[in-house]
Amino acid sequence: MTTPTVTATPAAGAAKPATAADPNRLRRRRRLAQWGFVAPAVVFMLLFFGYPLVRNVVMSFQHYTPKTFFTGESPFNGTDNWSNVFQDALFGKALWHTLVFTAGSLLGQFCIGLALAVFFNRRFPLGGVLRSLILLPWLVPMVVSGIVWRRILDQDTGVLNTFLDTVGLGSGHTPWLTSPNMALLSVILVNIWIGIPFNMVILYGGLQEIPKELHEAAALDGASAWRTFRSVTLPMLKPVVTVVLVLGFMSTVKILDLILALTDGGPADATQTLGTLTYQNSFVQLDFGAGAVVGNVLILISAVFAVFYLRANRTEGK
To answer: What's the number of domains the chain is made of?
Structure first.
């Protein structure tokens, strides 16, 4: 007797095997997810950076006055604003003061900050406490620092002149902020005092990342402390130095509040910079077109500096 053969048939409604996911659909989903993360940053940049920048450029070619806010009429006047600003002798003076102020501040902040970073790189008692105290100028708002230093540098009642007179190092009436020959130097020194903590903290962090084995190897080879610093420390610290100088330039070239608090651009425009000139044109003389021109010059200077920085980094990376 033979056994009948039973053939299994798939049950009705049984699930079919899952097919492989479509590569194109996965790629599209991945691309949408990427744009989903990028879109908020792009929208933010366009609203808060792109639109003000374009509006400032357009305003520099318009006759823009307080009346414009009510009438909405701001006719284009071609390059009149630009020619008026460039023909003004104060613009050339402000540009020169900006370059001197920026270069002097960066040089002083970096050199003193690097020296302090190297000093604190060695462990010693109360080192952390002293580092914390040095950070105080960086934590105080710049306007407050400017007002305090204005009192300290006062010609008649300032603490600095009183101290110098007491120790016999001065006449007691040095015009730190009231002399056209000394005002810019005084402002630079105050800005150096404010920027030292930032430079010290960033450079100190860079020094901590340098392997100690490199210094030990240099010492075994008989290298002096200066030779080790020049041939080992500085090359290893170069990326951090670049970041410090770039950030320092960007924050220094546009400083306004400190100069307003100390000298308000005086005396006799001795401390007038592009930042203060933009403020005075726009909000004191209410010539918004001229203020936009000076602001665009500041933006152009920063853009040129950024391009050189990016090209230098690209060259080093090759």
So the answer is: 1
